[in-house]
Amino acid sequence: MPSHTLATRERLREVRYEIRGDLARRARELESHGHKLIKLNIGNPGAFGFRAPEHLQRAIADHIHDTDPYTHQQGLPRAREALAAHYRARGTPHASAERIFIGNGVSELIDIALRALLNLGDEVLLPSPDYPLWSAATILNDGIPRYYSCRAENGFLPDPDEIERMIGPKTRALVLINPNNPTGASYPRPLLEKLVALAAKYRLLLMADEIYDGILYDGNAFQPLAPLAGELPCLTFSGLSKVHRACGWRVGWAVLSGDPLRTGEYHHALDLLGALRLCANVPGQFAIEAALTGGDTIGALTAPGGRLHASRQAVIEACAGSRFLSVVPPQGALYAFPRVDTTHLPDFDDYRFALELLETEHVLIVPGSSFNVPYRDHFRVTLLPEAREIAEVFRRIERSLSQYADRGGARHVA
Predict the structure, then answer these.
(1) pLDDT per residue over 142-198, tens digit each?
(2) Which domain holds residue 381?
(3) Which of 19, 218, 222, 327 has the most Cβ atoms closer than 10 angstroms to its Cβ?
(4) Three-class DSSP labels, 89-128
(5) 229 and 320 housed in the same domain
(6) What are the percentages of helix, strand and coil residues in the chain, rounded to 5?
(7) What CATH number did the domain enclosing 346 receive?
(8) Are 286 and 61 contacting, i.e. CB atoms less than 8 angstroms apart?
(9) What is the pTM for the complete model shown?
(10) What CATH number is associated with residue 92?
(11) Which of 338, 321, 322 is nearest to 184 (CA)?
(12) How many domains in the chain?
């Protein structure tokens, strides 16, 4: 019988996710051959020795006998009540348990939220660089991503005037990632107020990815979007993965705020899609109330003397001492986004360099072009390793860049 290739969805060809893509697959091959790698491609705290706080672990253990049945499709009522109280205290308008959706991480909720919103050809305004899940979810839900620039020379902050010029009749939503992944930028209140004004003027849904809201450095502040949005439709995403170091528990939430009359139909769409997947992981939901009421466990890590602060400082110092690198110091989140000076390396290509670094120095980074930018002179690293390991990584990066420069940057790795 003739063989037939099983066809896949055509739009998948437009989707990229290099954070876990070809380079990560090559890394696994190298590990299978006994090579020890330093992997800075994923913001996965548990892989670097961090643990979820003990009181969160205890909350799950104490309720494990209650976790066998399905729960409500929007999540455990007690967890949603705790979230509603938390967001009301932040000033989120109309925050109530009925308008909160708990999912299997923020990733699932982003997909559901866009599926509930988009018709074929609708446009979503995304930051460039972005977290590529946002682009993938837009594409796979038949939307079109439109990228507004967040340039290094502007601290990776967006330009509201540029965003306004991009808005057209098919624009449905404006996405903000704050604090930002991959750049670490934290958006100031006056900027957010201008973006809210655009959403009001053009009747856009605001979608605020705030998963890193508690991870800030050197006195930088976080301004939540929903209180500024007021009665405008706004969907705020967060979860336990980053601030509470519990990625594997897959606990995220989305809070729908703004005028309930304007968001009623959208609320029903979210509820329907949530019901179709029955419910989110139940055991992890018992940790939500403990996370919100159990005190700050991240501040000591991001303050001077804390592990994350020290690792961030190690990146800043390594780039300052480099012949080739510069970096905008991250104000928040778990990443840095260094830039390679292409005046010294005119033929530099971020993907080719990342592959060579992996093969020769056994360090895994993410090429900057993976984050939907038009340039190829950045890369992303996570701040999760110890500072001494960060310093070692950048010694290897500097050595590899020096060799790259000596060859004119032209050799490809076989």
Answers:
(1) 999 999 999 999 999 999 999 999 999 999 999 999 999 999 999 999 999 999 999
(2) 10-51+300-406
(3) 327
(4) HHCCCCCCHHHEEEECHHHHHHHHHHHHHCCCCCEEEEEE
(5) no
(6) 45, 15, 40
(7) 3.90.1150.10
(8) no
(9) 0.93
(10) 3.40.640.10
(11) 338
(12) 2
